From TrEMBL:
<comment type="similarity">
    <text>Belongs to the auxin efflux carrier (TC 2.A.69.2) family.</text>
</comment>
<keyword id="KW-0472">Membrane</keyword>
<feature type="transmembrane region" description="Helical">
    <location>
        <begin position="374"/>
        <end position="392"/>
    </location>
</feature>
<feature type="transmembrane region" description="Helical">
    <location>
        <begin position="263"/>
        <end position="282"/>
    </location>
</feature>
<dbReference type="GO" id="GO:0080162">
    <property type="term" value="P:endoplasmic reticulum to cytosol auxin transport"/>
</dbReference>
<feature type="transmembrane region" description="Helical">
    <location>
        <begin position="43"/>
        <end position="61"/>
    </location>
</feature>
<feature type="transmembrane region" description="Helical">
    <location>
        <begin position="302"/>
        <end position="322"/>
    </location>
</feature>
<keyword id="KW-0256">Endoplasmic reticulum</keyword>
<protein>
    <recommendedName>
        <fullName>Protein PIN-LIKES 3-like</fullName>
    </recommendedName>
</protein>
<keyword id="KW-1133">Transmembrane helix</keyword>
<feature type="transmembrane region" description="Helical">
    <location>
        <begin position="103"/>
        <end position="127"/>
    </location>
</feature>
<feature type="transmembrane region" description="Helical">
    <location>
        <begin position="6"/>
        <end position="28"/>
    </location>
</feature>
<keyword id="KW-0812">Transmembrane</keyword>
<comment type="function">
    <text>Involved in cellular auxin homeostasis by regulating auxin metabolism. Regulates intracellular auxin accumulation at the endoplasmic reticulum and thus auxin availability for nuclear auxin signaling.</text>
</comment>
<keyword id="KW-0927">Auxin signaling pathway</keyword>
<dbReference type="InterPro" id="IPR045033">
    <property type="entry name" value="PILS1/3/4/5/7"/>
</dbReference>
<feature type="transmembrane region" description="Helical">
    <location>
        <begin position="334"/>
        <end position="354"/>
    </location>
</feature>
Amino acid sequence: MKLLQLFITASVPVLKLLLITGLGAYLARDGIDILGEDARKHLNTVAFYVFCPALVASKLAQTITSKSIVEMWFMPINILITFIIGSILGWIVILVTRAPPHLSGLILGCCSAGNLGTILLIIIPSICKEKGGPFGAPDVCQTNGMGYVSLSMAIGSIYIWSYAYNIVRIFSRRSTKGSEVSEISISMPSKESSTSDPESCIEPLPSSSKDMIAEDNEDHQCAVPCSRSVAKPEVVSSINMVSVTDKVKQNISMLFRKTNMSAILNPSTIAAIVGFVIGLVPEIRKLMIGEGAPLRVIQDSVLLLGDGAIPAVTLIIGGNLLKGLQGQGIRKSFIIGIVIVRYIALPLTGIFIIKGAQKIGLLHSDPLYRFVLLLQYALPPAMSIGVMTQLFGAGENECSVIMLWTYALASISLTLWSTAFIWLVA
């Protein structure tokens, strides 16, 4: 394909995304208020529990077989690589811009977690429908492409709510701790401060909630009390060894206890498991998949529900981005740093990784599969990061501004990178 034709093919799905997003922003305006805050919440709930799981389950059930799952084994590793490299680059952004603690988790989350579902759901089908498309027959391209996108959405959801979620949680907790330490020191009576022992080795354990305090108390209830008497070296060494061992055990137990399993096992993840079971078990697949399947009406109904995921989620994105225009100011260096990471550094890194993986034989020959893998490096930040900032109350307004600018620039970035990626794989 000629370069101009490649550019037109890549720009069409991005224009569709812009039009639907713009419509969502228009419907969310105060003067219109068709897609106001309450309406977006209700629509988001329906999309989260019904539309998106139906789409993931139906597409995976159609495309996943024992052969295809072997061919797509590299995708979970590729998505994990995007998260790790994005986190490293995000940490560099934090160091260079000297970001405050309460925004560190937001910056790391935006740099590491990309929108692995909604954007791909629009781009891949649109490219497949183009006449003379680079990925072969439209029906075959659509079927295979939606299988890749559904797997990307399912794996991405697991990583976002296990990896990015805990990053935002940890940094928001640190910033909350710092503010509460200052409040405690200000409100503490002078009498207590004058009688406290300056050499005491017992430090206060401030936390962001009563549950955290209770957990910390449970973790430290076996701590050895301080003593002014001089202990023997053998006793000191044994105490140190016990304390180190206890700390390791406590950290491991806290990690498992504080992992948000309900967030990881969200409806889309459960739907992905159902889709895998239907696709991989031949007896169930024959019952539900195919024109002659006796229970094909179930699959057709789920497909019909899944078709509502793309417009519903895209309208919600447009309505949420409108909040960025009303958000508080944020330093330009943060936005520039995130844009450089997501739209320049990560895509360039992805080209080297995918080309290297292809050269040593880790990828199968389908160019559409390689295109999806490359596109996972050039996506805007996941909208779930905004939900996390609302949940922990750290950087909510700043997140709205970041999302506004990154998604506004995504129209240019995705068009250019999609053109380059199609040229590389086709």
